[in-house]
Amino acid sequence: MIAKVEPLTSARSLRGPFDYALTGEMSAVGVGSVVMVPFARRQVLGVVVELADRSELPPERLATPLRALEADVPPELVRLGLWVGEEYCSTPARGLALVLPPGTGTGAKQRARPRTALTASITDEGRRSLQQEARLGVAQQRVLEALASAPLAAADACRAAGCSHDTLNRLAARGLIALDQVRIRRAPEAAGIGSGRSDGAALTTAQAAAVARIKAALDAEAGDRRLLLHGVTGSGKTEVYLRAVAETLARGRSAIVLVPEIALTPQTVTRFRQRFGEQVAVLHSSLSLGERYDEWDRLRRGDARVCVGPRSAVFAPLTQLGLIVVDEEHDPSYKQDGDPRYDARHVAERRVGLAGAVLLAGSATPRPETRVRLERIEMPERVDGQRLPPVEIAGMAGVSGALHPRTRDALEEVRERGEKAIILLNRRGWSNFLQCGTCGRAWGCPDCDVTLVLHRAAGRMACHHCGHSEPIPGFCPDCGSMSLSRHGTGTEKLEDELASLVAPLPVFRLDSDTAGERSAVTRILSRFEQAESGVLVGTQMVAKGHDFPDVTLGVVLDADSTLRFPDFRSEERTFALVAQLAGRSGRGRRGGRVLVQALDPSARALRLAAAHDSEGFLEGEIARRRALRYPPFGHLIRAVCLSEEAGPEVEAAAALRALIALDDAQILGPAPLFRVQARERSQLVVKAGDRAAAVRAVRHAVEQVSSDRRHKGVAFAVDVDPQ
Ligand code: ADP
Ligand code: ZN
Ligand code: ZN
């Protein structure tokens, strides 16, 4: 047999697969096996992507893999990984890296392995000796007693019996205990926050109808099985997902539940764990590598049949897949930042298509592309019959300070009544920038063309693009002036202002500065949940799916700041942000209200969000997209060329442009982008009708230009469906 092996190297230019002969021990290798192979006088890891009867190469030139790793990849995931590599203009190796066991990837090293420990267990003979009170030493007796109920790690057995390892060896020699290397599971800690209020409750009429539709899709033999659960915030979508997963398991199939960046949704994870117990495996980046490896392996072996995780969980190694849920499908975290820049929602569609499974995307604010393409199930009302909270827009023109007088009044009420409020400001740090009051100097990042953001507690000014930071200066280095003024307000400063405004109510801040790790997010959210009253302030993290029944006020500051970005998705983003934050308020008996501060209160996205009119918003948005041929009526591909000095990046972009031959497309650029991480950038945007043809043309052009010596030193970043 011949194995076609794709080496896991990160080079763009190297293209496999390469043939290896499967002989001897290696005969058991199949598609999806991960093998160490001799390659150009080195050893690299590779994935078997195909088996063949014969090779073009003469037998004497065929090497044999050196060994195979313990874990392999299901063949359908090998195909999915290769498809991602192509679909996102990346390489086969980078596509495959996504589907490998954790700790295996490009770079050809295996950094995670199963963990085993020497374990002592009592034998039948041992039990008999214990019962018959045979002649045993005191220590030996204690060991057998300790092991009578369950096996123990050898070290623990010694500790329990207060004996040395020799005692174990003597018992083993007499056949009274067995010492074996046993696989140890590294189980992630269960984060505890919130509990399902719906466990055991009867479904609402809308939920029951949704579940019935999903069951029909699970039982359908063929046809389009992609569903959109369009339900307002608080309509009980999570309960529908839970039932959908239960129905899938009942049919002997497995399920993937994708959630936005998991640090932000500990509640959802907890609810799945509570309902399905050990059948649930969680995959996310803040688990230790060992824990991730073991969770992956439990899925691969079928010990766990439900995988909950962020975008990368779309590659979970489940077989017999029946369902993929995409919770909060509008969330931007479903798109990967680095190469391959895949979109988990698009990959999920591909995967359900290949597996004959059902896709269930849910949101209160679905994207226009999802609304147009998927069959819609509506849940227009909240479960408890509560109305959505009234939303007021407060114009900020002429208002000084970060808070509108109406917002101050509303917060004062929350303080007096001892209630809870959530305040969203999508800007972290103390103030956005520092300027010299005398000469006007502004502090920018030396490597990126952006201003530095002041972080007071850290005593530093930081670049939010590259991580550069420097101490806050005491005077202007240009003119020596000491009068430096701070402009704008970020979450850090807002927290400070609120603390005195709402005292003695506690103020909690949630942004990526306070929530470095997942445990911190859970801690902050559960402190807010458990507090009698208080204010939660933070970036968009505070608007995501949390279910706190007793929040009576929601506030969005600078709600139209997103509209000032020149991006065709900015309307949609703004609408979603306001609608989602509004969804956090008024979920309890006390009701609630929402205030939206904006410079331009007449903005369409804000008006419609205030009216809770997501269908109206979608209609207008879909019409606009159709007219302008934006997704889903056209497809965008962005190619960025980067170089250390100015010039080569523009030449490369121009060369790309010249090579992209497409009938049904418009090519914009080369256009300069602002510098990031000391690299000049030039961009091309391809707007095309035929997605597959455009992807092919761009991939081909990038392959050519990147292997052309004249463009040496230029790096390429291709983004299909940029966000
Ligand atoms: P959504 O995700 O649609 O915003 P959630 O799933 O957070 O809504 O549900 C809102 C609240 O309603 C949760 O506390 C949930 O436990 C509760 N809930 C869901 N379904 C029911 C039901 N059928 N009966 C009573 N409470 C329910
Ligand atoms: Zn100055
Ligand atoms: Zn920078």
Return the average pLDDT rounded to an integer. 90
Q: Which strand order do you get reading across the main beta sheet?
A: 11-12-10-13-14-9-15
Assembly annotation: single chain
Work out the number of β strands.
Answer: 30
- Fraction in beta strands: 15-25%
Query: How much is the radius of gyration in Å?
Result: 29 Å
Number of helices: 20
Basic shape? globular
Strand and helix map with partners:
Elements: E1 2-7, E2 18-21, E3 34-39, E4 42-52, E5 67-68, H1 75-87, H2 92-97, E6 115-122, H3 124-131, H4 138-147, E7 152-153, H5 154-161, H6 165-173, E8 177-184, H7 205-219, E9 226-231, H8 237-250, E10 254-258, H9 266-276, E11 280-282, H10 289-301, E12 306-309, E13 321-326, H11 344-355, E14 358-363, H12 368-373, E15 375-379, E16 391-395, H13 405-417, E17 420-424, E18 433-436, E19 453-455, E20 460-462, E21 469-471, E22 484-487, H14 491-502, E23 507-510, H15 518-530, E24 534-538, E25 551-556, H16 570-584, E26 593-598, H17 604-610, H18 614-628, E27 635-643, H19 648-659, E28 665-676, E29 679-688, H20 691-706, E30 715-720
Parallel strand pairs: 9-14, 9-15, 10-12, 10-13, 11-12, 13-14, 16-26, 17-24, 17-25, 23-24, 25-26
Antiparallel strand pairs: 1-2, 1-4, 3-4, 3-5, 6-7, 6-8, 18-22, 19-20, 20-21, 27-29, 27-30, 28-29
Helix pairs in contact: 4-5, 7-8, 16-17, 19-20
This protein binds adenosine-5'-diphosphate and zinc ion (ZN) (2 copies).
One zinc ion binds next to loops.
